[in-house]
């Protein structure tokens, strides 16, 4: 598969009165043509900061300290604002969480959808509006012809998010970054929007970076998943690998802390403690203070990536050759067994 | 991955033993220093140079103006026909304009010598047409302006905050009636109120203050009401209500502290307009009566002889401008300091 | 639920109506003729999408609003018309609430100890300052925080910690019944489980009864003994959580259930979403009707056999 975006060893920090917050501490990942990569993590894990940096939309007190963002062979880190404006919206588009604040309340939706097209490609207003109409039909706005002249407040929350998606897609971008696009929506609307995004991806072959904290949504949309914690990616793999064969104790914790159908009462696993304060990140592995499977070495040295399969890496010392064998939580054992059935790979750790 | 091999060898086998966790404190620890609201605001205000300088200038002006009640260079109301219209004279300064000389018919003349002023007597800013020391009168005028500022602030705090708070917290019909009353009051121009006052009272401080009592607090009341309506719906206010807290306690404990920033900022913005209102009344002759002086009356007197004795108008004009600019800059700085959205 | 003895109905809501601007053009029927009851010691989950009236129901029960009509019996006493400061004060101690937004539910200008002690101060539950401090420290410990946190301000805490402070505040007045108004929807996944576990632990320790309002059906199913599904101000289905989750009968429940994503790619690949179409207005009188023991559906009399048959079919599968 063709690599379309390559993020390499990104370090980002924010200056605050209390000191330097190291929001991103060495993040690397690739994005391939036509795939959906989900970035999962809690608030403060750095998932939004990473994608905002790709768009170069960092707040004023944020700095890229180190790293490369290669898009079509060019490093976005060194682009000027003017150069970025040509890329934003045209080649890399973004959908935000709140559909109400990402639409201009004083402009009708036909013009809003057409605006980006007119800015990036030299087309007449009529042509742009025609494309806008086509796209609004594609995202499933009923009676799109009549509603071109309507304003955002005349649409429901779900429809607004559809319009936002239409705006993002009007230039057929190579990459679509969706930052929690369904978090503000009800479950039934969320399901519709996700179906729509998958459908459109099929049609126009765009690559999607999907940021969310909802593992259910991830299981639905993602081809590959990257789990972030404390400003780093701690595990990355295909959707099946992350959900059925997770290796990092944090991923274990996340998956066990969601109730499943089979779960009996009083069985929910909770990761103790709170996320790390990146003003003063722990030495070693950021997760060790909350990690019941922590090793002594976790307090000294951050673990490197260990390869589980060619597509699956996890940054935990538990995968090191000298590490003791541990039995993961019950829910994870269940998932490993499923993986065993699916792939036929024997899970030695379970015996 | 290549680097994996390298890294692992560096560590001894016992470093791969399970870690025994100490206590939960380390998991729940809070790193950032604890800052109260005021400390936090002060930290941000300090960053704003203009606001800090303004604050110090205002403190200095206030100390000097009120100090002059006891230590004044001269008696501000004592007339002395022998010493009329003297130019400024500052000891040790030989700059034209500040050395007691004036240009008469193209010639520099020592006016002090002409008026037989004793050697040790200086009028730093000269004297007016009745021989009163301008500096002393300026200090007196500044004092009046600052008193007006304090009164405006007190009115804002007492009537404005109370009215707005009751209106906002009660809501419904009470709010409706109170707002209509405000609309009627704010419909009457200040000047009309002032002229009406003059039909009953002598022109002077009393009538200015009464005019301010009628209308000076309206903006504050509106802002407090809007803020109270907003805070009223916050979940912590609901929590207090479900705990059985009374409305008045909620207003004092929950609403007021959370809008204190807005109140202070609005107060700081209303002060310069009150000072200007008084100065304006003084200037058009509806303000203080001589021998009392305010910056407005000084301006009024000064502008009549501006062509010949410009210092009589420059001094009060600069003072008034500095005070107003300082209040505005400080208010601006405070607004940024109290606004949590500016947090960085 | 204890099946041996007849469980005590701690809360019994009958025909609750909460209209805003009643009789005016912009009348909103946020809660329209809702009836349900909660047994002592159980957790009743109320689910529905935003705007369905679930939070309004909670707020009407705790009397943040004046109910337009209907009765709310708490421990046998009708609290919907409760008046007088003295009656209200006892009621305010018995029923407490935990709020959705951990950032908006704590007064940013108050120290944690004063936030938690607010109820203690109002009801005069502390004999002395030392007693007050002791109670605050005990509450902090109960919710898994440290007593050194007492002198800090809310903004210094993480979302999960703040939510625990909110829980401590509610517990300070020793309530019997707590309304949890979407207490976990603003929290991260790993923190949600902490709060849910804490709520369950407290329920056991203090014999609390919960009304758990949420839109996340899988979490509601996990924590609740019984579930009510709300749609446009009406309760459309009530039953034990197993029953509703596995054999949801009302078309709206079915659509809601089919929309929940689960962290399981294989399940997700096969999940088929059902869209809910509101039935045409046919003039039939509808209300909650018992289809099977303890399983209620909002329907008309002649629809009862249909749902009974549907339930049988589902159970056979």
UniProtKB/TrEMBL annotation, chain A:
One of its GO terms (cellular component) is plasma membrane. InterPro entries: AAA+_ATPase, ABC_Ni/Peptide_Import, ABC_transporter-like_ATP-bd, ABC_transporter-like_CS, Oligopep_ABC_C, P-loop_NTPase. It is found in: Cell membrane. One of its GO terms (biological process) is peptide transport. CDD domains: ABC_NikE_OppD_transporters. GO terms for molecular function: ATP binding; ATP hydrolysis activity. PROSITE patterns: ABC_TRANSPORTER_1, ABC_TRANSPORTER_2. SMART domains: AAA (SM00382). It holds the Pfam family oligo_HPY. It is a peripheral membrane protein. Keywords: ATP-binding, Cell membrane, Membrane, Nucleotide-binding, Transport. Residues 5-255 form the ABC transporter domain. Belongs to the ABC transporter superfamily. This is ABC transporter ATP-binding protein. It comes from Vagococcus humatus. The lineage of its organism: Bacteria, Bacillati, Bacillota, Bacilli, Lactobacillales.
TrEMBL record, chain B:
It is a multi-pass membrane protein. Residues 142-331 form the ABC transmembrane type-1 domain. Gene3D superfamilies: MetI-like. The chain crosses the membrane at residues 51-71, 144-169, 181-201, 207-224, 262-288, 308-331. Its main location: membrane. Pfam families: BPD_transp_1, OppC_N. It is found in: Cell membrane. GO terms for biological process: peptide transport; protein transport; transmembrane transport. Keywords: Cell membrane, Membrane, Peptide transport, Protein transport, Transmembrane, Transmembrane helix, Transport. One of its GO terms (cellular component) is plasma membrane. NCBIfam families: Opp3C (NF045475). Belongs to the binding-protein-dependent transport system permease family. OppBC subfamily. This is ABC transporter permease. It comes from Vagococcus humatus. The lineage of its organism: Bacteria, Bacillati, Bacillota, Bacilli, Lactobacillales.
């Amino acid at each position: 598969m063709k690599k379309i975006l390559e993020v390499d060893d990104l370090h980002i920090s924010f200056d605050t009165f209390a000191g330097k917050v190291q929001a991103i501490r060495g993040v690397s990942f690739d994005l391939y043509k036509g795939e959906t990569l989900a970035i999962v993590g809690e608030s403060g894990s750095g998932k939004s900061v990473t994608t905002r940096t790709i768009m170069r939309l960092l707040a004023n007190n944020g700095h890229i300290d180190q790293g490369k963002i290669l898009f079509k062979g060019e490093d976005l880190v060194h682009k000027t604002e003017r150069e970025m404006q040509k890329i934003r919206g045209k080649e890399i588009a973004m959908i935000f969480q709140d559909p109400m604040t990402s639409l201009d309340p004083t402009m009708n939706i036909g013009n809003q959808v057409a605006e980006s097209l007119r800015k990036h490609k030299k087309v007449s207003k009529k042509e742009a509006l025609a494309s806008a109409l086509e796209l609004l039909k594609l995202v499933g706005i009923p009676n799109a012809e009549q509603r071109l002249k309507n304003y955002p407040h005349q649409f429901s929350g779900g429809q607004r998010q559809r319009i936002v998606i239409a705006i993002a897609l009007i230039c057929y971008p190579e990459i679509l970054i969706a930052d929690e696009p369904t978090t503000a929506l009800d479950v039934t609307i969320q399901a519709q929007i996700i179906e729509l995004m998958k459908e459109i991806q099929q049609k126009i072959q765009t690559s999607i970076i999907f940021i969310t904290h909802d593992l259910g949504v991830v299981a639905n949309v993602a081809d590959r998943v990257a789990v972030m914690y404390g400003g780093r990616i701690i595990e990355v793999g295909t959707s099946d690998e992350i959900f059925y064969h997770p290796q990092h104790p944090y991923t274990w914790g996340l998956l066990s802390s969601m109730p499943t159908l089979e779960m009996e009462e009083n069985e929910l696993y909770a990761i103790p403690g709170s996320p790390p304060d990146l003003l003063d990140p722990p030495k070693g592995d950021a997760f060790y203070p909350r990690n019941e499977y922590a090793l002594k070495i976790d307090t000294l040295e951050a673990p490197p990536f260990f390869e589980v399969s060619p597509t699956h890496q996890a940054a935990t010392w538990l995968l090191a050759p000298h590490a003791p064998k541990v039995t993961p939580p019950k829910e994870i054992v269940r998932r490993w067994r499923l993986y065993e059935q699916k792939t036929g790979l024997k899970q030695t750790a379970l015996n | 991955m290549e680097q994996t091999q390298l890294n692992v060898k560096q560590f001894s086998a016992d470093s791969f033993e399970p870690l025994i966790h100490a206590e939960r404190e380390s998991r729940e620890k809070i790193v950032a220093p604890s800052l109260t609201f005021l400390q936090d605001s002060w930290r941000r205000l300090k960053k704003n140079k203009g606001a800090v300088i303004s604050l110090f200038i205002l403190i200095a002006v206030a100390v000097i103006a009120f100090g002059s009640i006891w230590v004044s260079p001269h008696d501000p109301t004592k007339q002395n026909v022998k010493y009329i219209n003297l130019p400024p004279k500052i000891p040790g300064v030989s700059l034209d304009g500040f050395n007691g000389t004036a240009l008469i018919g193209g010639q520099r003349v020592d006016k002090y010598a002409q008026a037989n002023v004793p050697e040790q007597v200086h009028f730093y800013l000269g004297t007016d047409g009745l021989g009163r020391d301008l500096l002393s009168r300026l200090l007196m005028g500044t004092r009046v302006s600052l008193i007006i500022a304090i009164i405006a602030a007190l009115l804002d705090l007492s009537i404005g905050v109370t009215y707005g708070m009751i209106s906002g917290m009660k809501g419904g019909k009470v709010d409706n009636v109170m707002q209509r009353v405000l609309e009627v009051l704010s419909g009457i121009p200040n000047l009309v109120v002032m002229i009406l006052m003059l039909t009953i009272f002598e022109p002077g401080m009393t009538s200015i203050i009464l005019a301010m009592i009628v209308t000076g607090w309206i903006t504050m009341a509106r802002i407090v009401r809007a803020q109270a309506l907003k805070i009223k719906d916050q979940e912590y206010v609901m929590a207090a209500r479900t705990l059985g807290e009374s409305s008045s306690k909620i207003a004092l404990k929950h609403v007021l502290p959370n809008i204190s920033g807005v109140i202070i900022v609005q107060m700081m913005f209303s002060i310069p307009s009150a000072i200007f209102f008084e100065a304006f009344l003084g200037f058009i002759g509806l303000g203080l009566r001589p021998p009392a002086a305010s910056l407005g009356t000084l301006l009024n007197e000064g502008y009549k002889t501006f062509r010949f004795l410009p210092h009589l108008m420059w001094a009060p004009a600069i003072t008034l401008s500095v005070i107003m600019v300082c209040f505005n800059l400080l208010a601006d700085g405070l607004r940024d300091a109290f606004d949590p959205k500016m947090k960085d | 639920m204890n099946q041996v003895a007849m469980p005590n109905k701690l809360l019994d809501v009958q025909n609750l109506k909460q209209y805003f601007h009643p009789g005016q053009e912009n009348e909103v029927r946020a809660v329209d003729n809702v009836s349900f009851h909660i047994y002592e010691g159980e957790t009743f989950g109320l689910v529905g999408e935003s705007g369905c009236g679930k939070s309004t129901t909670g707020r009407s029960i705790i009397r943040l609003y004046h109910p337009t009509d209907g009765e709310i019996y708490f421990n046998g006493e009708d609290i919907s018309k409760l008046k007088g400061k003295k009656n209200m004060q006892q009621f305010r101690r018995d029923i407490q609430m935990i709020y959705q937004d951990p950032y908006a539910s704590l007064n940013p200008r108050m120290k944690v100890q004063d936030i938690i002690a607010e109820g203690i101060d109002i009801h005069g539950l502390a004999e002395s300052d030392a007693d007050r401090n002791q109670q605050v420290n005990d509450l902090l410990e109960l919710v898994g925080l440290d007593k050194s946190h007492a002198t800090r301000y809310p903004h210094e805490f993480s979302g999960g910690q703040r939510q625990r402070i909110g829980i401590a505040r509610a517990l300070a007045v020793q309530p019997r019944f707590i309304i949890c108004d979407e207490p976990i929807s603003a929290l991260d996944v790993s923190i949600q489980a902490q709060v849910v576990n804490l709520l369950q632990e407290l329920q056991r320790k203090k014999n609390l009864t919960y009304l758990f309002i949420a839109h996340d059906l899988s979490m509601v199913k996990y924590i609740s003994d019984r579930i009510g599904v709300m749609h446009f101000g009406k309760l459309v289905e009530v039953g034990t959580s197993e029953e509703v989750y596995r054999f949801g009968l009302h078309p709206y429940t079915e659509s809601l259930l089919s929309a929940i994503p689960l962290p399981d790619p294989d399940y997700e690949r096969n999940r088929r979403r059902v869209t809910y179409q509101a039935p045409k207005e046919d003039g039939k009188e509808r209300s909650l009707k018992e289809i099977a023991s303890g399983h209620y559906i909002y329907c008309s009399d002649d629809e009862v056999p249909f749902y009974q048959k549907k339930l049988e079919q589902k159970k056979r599968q």
